[in-house]
Design the sequence.
């Protein structure tokens, strides 16, 4: 019998959520994170805010997962308030709201696809012209003929707090957590589908955390979740060309005093704005809120700085330079006149990990089904991390040949739907997925697996594993 049912490698957005759902399902689980504390600013899950929205221009297939994730974040917030877990490694326990509802605007080029998604999934929404948007939300100044979708359910998630909440609650449920420890290698013991997986770890040089006394160890588990974010290419070299990290910078720009009220969360929704016309850029941003003042703005794919060699990830520059500021300022001065001449107050660098088709990679390792791969999320995955964590836990528990032995708890663990995967029968509806009704939603939640059909990028990756 292996010591752990499952080990999760990397406790960012996805690993922390997977750890929580695995612990909730009653599994003996260990989470290993290279940095300390969890919720650090060296990966992809920091920067004080992430957009959550339900109408999704990126694809209709995300609808059920988005609704499930939205509900799970609300439940997480309630659970955190009720159970008040201690923090990890002597850190204060996470507290405070995890979600702030502001509404969401999909402006310009993204309107059509977002609107289609809102209609297809029966979501509350309004269609605005640019002129109407400018009148109703005076922080904005967009061309009057553009169109925008307003979805009242959009808002801001607090990423560091959510990661910490998932980890702290998982620990309360019995999960073990090691920070300041890096997994240096892994291997499945033999080729059988049920073979245990062995991981070797070392003390991580970049942290002051308390580490296993030996400075490293060997652990084994029936299943392993590899969720190291941009470092996935280090752990699974076959994925290097499929999951490519990219440096991103977001900035907070000073807003002139008389207009600040227009940038408050009750007056300014979160937004994505893709410029119309050829060569248009896509910006996204947030109202002023929380501890950092200013209009927060990002530019999708920023300066297009791809990091193809994982060894270079730790050397990526973390501060913003003039080119970073200029890229962000184009969006500020183009559409937010009251911030156009404001100073850059703060900036934060982070990683997207992109697939060629811009979708996610969540699947079993083709040669070792007991190893679940979760990365990349192509710069738009945080809002689905709660649902993806639950999905990963389900994949582990389904355990195609893994040595996971724990039965799912009869109550209080995974939803009923998790216990009996719907392999046939009627297609689950979006409402089923939201309510977590019996046998609902899971098939729809797995459109992100390695699937040679119809996904050029993923097919290429499969060949590499071959
Ligand atoms: C600037 C920016 C803005 C974004 N905006 C949004 C948004 O508005 N909405 C949205 O939904 N999404 C957004 N995203 C995307 C989203 O934040 C990411 O998809 C998500 O946070 C990725 O999480 P992750 O767990 O894959 O990676 P990470 O958060 O990087 O976590 C991976 C973890 O693994 C650890 N690790 C790596 N290697 C090892 C090892 N060998 N051993 C142990 N631990 C290891 C790392 O230290 C890290 O903590 C944004 C991303 C960025 C960068």
Sequence:
């Amino acid at each position: 019998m292996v010591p752990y049912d499952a080990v999760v490698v990397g406790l960012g957005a996805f690993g922390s959520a997977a750890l929580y759902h695995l612990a909730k399902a009653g599994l003996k689980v260990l989470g290993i994170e290279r940095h300390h504390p969890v919720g650090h600013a060296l990966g992809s899950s920091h920067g004080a805010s992430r957009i959550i929205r339900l109408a999704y221009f990126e694809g209709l297939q995300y609808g059920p997962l988005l609704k499930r994730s939205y509900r799970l974040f609300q439940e997480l917030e309630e659970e955190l308030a009720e159970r008040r877990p201690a923090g990890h490694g002597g850190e204060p326990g996470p507290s405070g709201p995890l979600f702030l509802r502001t509404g969401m605007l999909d402006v310009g080029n993204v309107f059509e696809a977002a609107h289609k998604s809102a209609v297809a999934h029966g979501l509350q929404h309004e269609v605005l012209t640019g002129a109407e948007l400018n009148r109703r939300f005076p922080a904005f100044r967009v061309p009057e003929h553009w169109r925008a979708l307003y979805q009242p359910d959009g808002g801001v998630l607090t990423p560091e707090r959510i990661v910490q909440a998932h980890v702290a609650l998982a620990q309360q449920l019995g999960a073990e957590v090691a920070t300041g420890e890096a997994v240096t290698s892994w291997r499945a013991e033999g080729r059988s589908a049920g073979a245990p997986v062995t991981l070797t770890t070392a003390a991580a040089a970049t942290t002051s955390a308390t580490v296993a006394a030996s400075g490293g160890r060997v652990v084994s588990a029936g299943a392993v979740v590899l969720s190291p974010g941009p470092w996935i290419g280090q752990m699974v070299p076959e994925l290097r060309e499929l999951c490519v990290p990219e440096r991103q910078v977001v900035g907070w720009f000073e807003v002139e005093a008389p207009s600040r009220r227009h940038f408050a969360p009750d007056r300014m929704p979160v937004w994505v704005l893709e410029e119309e016309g050829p060569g248009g850029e896509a910006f996204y941003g947030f109202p002023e809120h929380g501890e950092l003042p200013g209009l927060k703005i990002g530019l999708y794919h920023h300066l297009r700085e791809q990091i193809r060699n994982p060894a270079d990830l730790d050397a990526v520059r973390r501060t913003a330079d003039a080119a970073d500021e200029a890229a962000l300022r184009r969006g500020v001065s183009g559409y937010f006149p009251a911030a156009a001449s404001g100073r850059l107050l703060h900036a934060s660098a982070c990683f997207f990990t992109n697939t060629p088709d811009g979708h996610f990679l969540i699947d079993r390792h083709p040669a070792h089904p007991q190893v679940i791969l979760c990365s990349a999320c192509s710069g738009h995955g945080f809002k689905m991390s709660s649902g993806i964590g639950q999905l990963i836990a389900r994949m582990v528990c389904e355990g195609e040949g893994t040595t996971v032995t724990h039965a799912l708890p009869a109550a209080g663990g995974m939803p009923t739907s998790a216990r009996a995967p719907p392999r046939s029968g009627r297609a689950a509806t979006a409402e089923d997925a939201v309510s977590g009704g019996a046998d609902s939603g899971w098939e729809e939640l797995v459109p992100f697996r390695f699937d040679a059909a119809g996904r050029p990028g993923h097919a290429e990756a499969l060949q590499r594993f071959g």
